[in-house]
Specification:
The chain has 342 residues and is of the alpha+beta class. It has two domains: 217 residues, Orthogonal Bundle (Endonuclease III, domain 1), CATH 1.10.340; 106 residues, Nucleoside Triphosphate Pyrophosphohydrolase (Alpha-Beta Complex), CATH 3.90.79.10. It is built from 15 helices and six strands. Strands 1, 2, 3, 4, 5 and 6 form a six-stranded mixed β-sheet that branches. Helix 1 crosses helix 11. It is elongated and about 80 Å long. It binds iron/sulfur cluster. Its cofactor is [4Fe-4S] cluster.
């Protein structure tokens, strides 16, 4: 990406941020590498998971799947298992599909070009920019919520971040301030500044390297930025499950590749009428996904014989499992919690 003529005042701010990063960068294991495979995996994990929560998962994931080839050769169930606890499992399935794309379309070598990285399954502009800048030294800003927040406050800029033009707008603004060849460090600096200092609520302005140049701070208008007008539509959805068991065992089946919770395991969603008399209780669980509020009704059905369980499993393609070996399967979070509570 070509850099146009830069604004010296903006460059000064960019340099202040970079200097601050040089002294305050968080010590994170993936900061010691420029291997695009590792950076890609950690970018995907930490987009929706806090660093402290996801660190062990990241370490375990790259220990088991240290490179693209190992990942591509693994079964998707095992990849999902290593994602267990992180949620948003579609990320794991996309990473797995992207590993096949790298093997098939790029000869097993992680692509260097921004457009090629963007072509990989599950990689959006932000991740492609982060990998390109950190691993390949490309001058491309990686714009995310942190970026929007910090820049909109520094410049008291009321450009609506929910607009479809926001990415391009802030990308151009960032290009005005990133010193030459420093996008990799600058993008990471913005990550740290946004999450550690310029937080969504109660930013720590007294620790901020750009306080004296921050218009929102200087004018006392921090809470007005960033501007976001469009509310994301959240849909409500009711789901029905039957936890069908006999003694220690119960029924599960793997979900398909469409809709939510792709490839995860679940309980039956319907039962024959003659099972209903064995229903002993019902639990209602509320769960939020990104754009959906779920209300999940889990009915517990305790059958009176093992043969009933076996026949239902055989006729309907279910597996029979117990709590211990359920640890080897990945379930949607509310169902995992239900099993843990047994
Ligand atoms: S001075 Fe405060 S509001 Fe401005 S960028 Fe720094 S932390 Fe954010």
């Amino acid at each position: 990406m070509k850099n146009h003529k830069q604004n010296p005042h903006f460059i000064l701010i960019g340099n202040q941020i970079l200097k601050w990063y040089g002294q305050n960068a968080r010590e994170l294991p993936f900061r010691n590498t420029k291997n695009p495979y590792n950076i890609w995996i950690c970018e995907i994990i930490f987009q929706q998971t806090r660093i402290a929560q996801g660190m062990q998962h990241y370490e375990n994931f790259v220990a088991r799947f240290p490179d693209v080839k190992t990942l591509a050769n693994a079964h998707s169930d095992e990849v999902l298992l290593y994602w267990k606890g992180l949620g948003y499992y579609s990320r794991a399935l996309n990473i797995h599909k992207a590993s096949h794309q790298i093997m098939n379309d790029f000869g097993g070598v992680f692509p260097e070009k921004y457009e090629d990285i963007l072509y990989l399954k599950g990689i959006g502009k932000y991740t492609a920019a982060a990998v390109s800048s950190i691993c390949f030294g490309k001058q491309i800003p990686a714009i995310d919520g942190n970026f929007y927040r910090v820049l909109s406050r520094i410049y008291a800029d009321d450009f609506d971040i929910s607009s479809s033009q926001a990415y391009k707008y802030y990308e151009n603004l960032a290009l005005e301030m990133i010193p030459s060849n420093a996008a990799g460090d600058f993008n990471q600096a913005m990550m740290d500044l946004g999450s550690e200092v310029c937080k969504p609520r109660n930013p720590l302005c007294s620790e901020c390297p750009v306080q004296e140049n921050c218009i929102a701070f200087q004018t006392g208008k921090i809470s007005e930025f960033p501007v976001k007008t469009k509310k994301v539509k959240v849909e409500s959805l009711e789901l029905q499950y039957y936890f069908v068991g006999f003694q220690e065992e119960f029924l599960i089946k793997q979900r398909g590749d469409d809709f939510i919770w792709k490839k995860l395991f679940e309980f039956p969603t319907d039962i024959p009428d003659d099972f209903r008399e064995f229903s002993i209780n019902e639990k209602i669980v509320k769960h939020k996904l990104t754009h959906k509020n779920l209300v999940i009704n889990i009915n517990r059905v305790v059958l009176s014989s093992k043969s009933q369980l076996d026949k239902f499993a055989f006729d309907n393609g279910f597996s029979i499992i117990n709590k211990d070996n359920s640890q080897q399967k990945s379930f949607p979070k509310p169902l995992e919690n239900y099993i843990d509570g047994l």
